[in-house]
């Protein structure tokens, strides 16, 4: 999760250089980075395993609803904050964009798109963030280096879906790709909205609210879509139950807590590195564990898209206020 799912808002806390932190803090930061790199990169494979038994919207809904229902009372009592109507309204909007459209879209797309490719396409959130921030009222036009990154990123995306037999490999399912593009765009919109819509001062309380509202909406949509008629609890495999538990505990619990920690203890540039490390981890795990093919098309597209992401997140910005680090997509992952 992140500046939003409530991924913590940028600017919360002053970045601290690793070279100026005590040895214990430095070790904790390194461990937290490892958790974000490996855990978040592995959630795409966990989603694929969960989909062996769970319909996609139910899988995503159960994951986030569970996190919300567990964390909300804890952080409500710990902070002593009583969320206002404005806070809840923002939680509904961001929960819908980030979790319903964003994470729900990722889960649905993995029915036809390999987990590693899904992670690669979700990395384009970094590109959409720049575009949405540019097009909003008062937005800032990206510098030339960022524009080049945007063009490269979408060229890599186009490479994945056509032509049909490039490099003797099939293209990625166009419908799944379209859903992932929409999910990434929704995640970018939700991430930017969460910075200005009004959330509680506690990032974790905001996360709990968004998880509860987003998870609830996902389960309602799943009900309307008839997914509960498809679900047979007696036939859910142990693998899929473990995958759901992994997504709740590690993906949304440990992984997100680690993200909040490093966003307060390190620099935005370092934190942003997860955006191009996660797809590499996901591609490797999908290939090694799930037997997903890594074709010439995949390798070329991955190189183009990840280079584009690096160009965007490392480019100089016009003013410090406009620096925006990419936000994970829980589709997650």
If you had to describe this structure to a student in words, what would you say it looks like?
The model is unreliable at 1-20 and 319-332 (pLDDT under 50). The longest helix has 28 residues, at 23-50. 69% of the residues lie in helices and 0% in strands. The relative contact order is 0.25. The protein has one domain. The chain is an all-alpha fold. α1 (23-50) crosses α12 (274-288). It has helices spanning 23-50, 56-79, 85-109, 115-122, 125-135, 144-161, 174-196, 203-224, 227-230, 238-265, 268-271, 274-288, 296-314.
As a percent range, the share of helical residues equals: 55-70%
Order of helices and strands: HHHHHHHHHHHHH
Structural domains: how many: 1
Strand content: under 5%
Key phrases:
69% helix; disordered N terminus; 13 helices; 333 residues; globular; single chain; mainly alpha; disordered C terminus
Task: Indicate the topology.
Elements: H1 23-50, H2 56-79, H3 85-109, H4 115-122, H5 125-135, H6 144-161, H7 174-196, H8 203-224, H9 227-230, H10 238-265, H11 268-271, H12 274-288, H13 296-314
Helix pairs in contact: 1-4, 1-10, 1-12, 2-3, 2-8, 2-10, 3-7, 3-8, 4-12, 5-7, 6-13
């Amino acid at each position: 999760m992140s500046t939003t799912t409530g991924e913590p808002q940028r600017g919360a806390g002053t970045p601290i250089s690793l070279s100026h932190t005590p040895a214990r803090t430095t070790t904790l930061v390194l461990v937290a980075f490892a958790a974000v790199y490996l855990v978040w990169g592995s959630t795409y494979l966990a989603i694929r395993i969960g989909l062996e038994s769970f319909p996609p919207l139910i899988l995503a809904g159960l994951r986030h609803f569970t996190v919300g229902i567990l964390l909300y009372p804890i952080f409500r009592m710990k902070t002593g904050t009583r969320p206002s109507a404005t806070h809840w309204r923002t939680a509904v909007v961001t929960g819908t964009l980030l979790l319903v459209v964003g994470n729900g879209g990722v889960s649905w797309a993995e029915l036809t798109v390999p987990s590693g490719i899904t992670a690669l396409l979700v990395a384009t959130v970094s590109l959409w963030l720049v575009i949405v921030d540019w097009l909003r009222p008062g937005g800032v036009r990206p510098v030339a280096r960022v524009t080049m990154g945007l063009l490269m990123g979408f060229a890599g995306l186009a490479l994945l879906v056509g032509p049909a037999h490039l490099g003797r490999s099939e293209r990625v399912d166009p419908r799944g790709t379209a859903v992932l593009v929409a999910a990434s765009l929704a995640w970018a919109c939700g991430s930017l909205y969460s910075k200005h819509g009004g959330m509680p001062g506690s990032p974790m309380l905001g996360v709990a609210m968004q998880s509860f509202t987003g998870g609830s909406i996902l389960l309602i949509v799943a009900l309307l879509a008839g997914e509960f008629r498809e679900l047979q609890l007696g036939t859910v495999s142990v693998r899929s139950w473990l995958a759901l538990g992994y997504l709740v505990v590690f993906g949304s619990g440990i992984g997100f807590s680690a993200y909040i920690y490093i966003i307060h203890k390190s620099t935005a540039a370092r934190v942003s590195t997860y955006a191009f490390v996660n797809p590499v981890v996901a591609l490797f795990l999908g290939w090694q564990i799930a037997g997903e093919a890594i074709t010439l098309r995949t390798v070329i597209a991955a190189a183009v898209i990840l280079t584009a992401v690096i160009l965007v997140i490392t480019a100089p910005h016009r003013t410090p206020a406009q620096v925006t680090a990419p936000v994970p997509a829980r589709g997650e992952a």
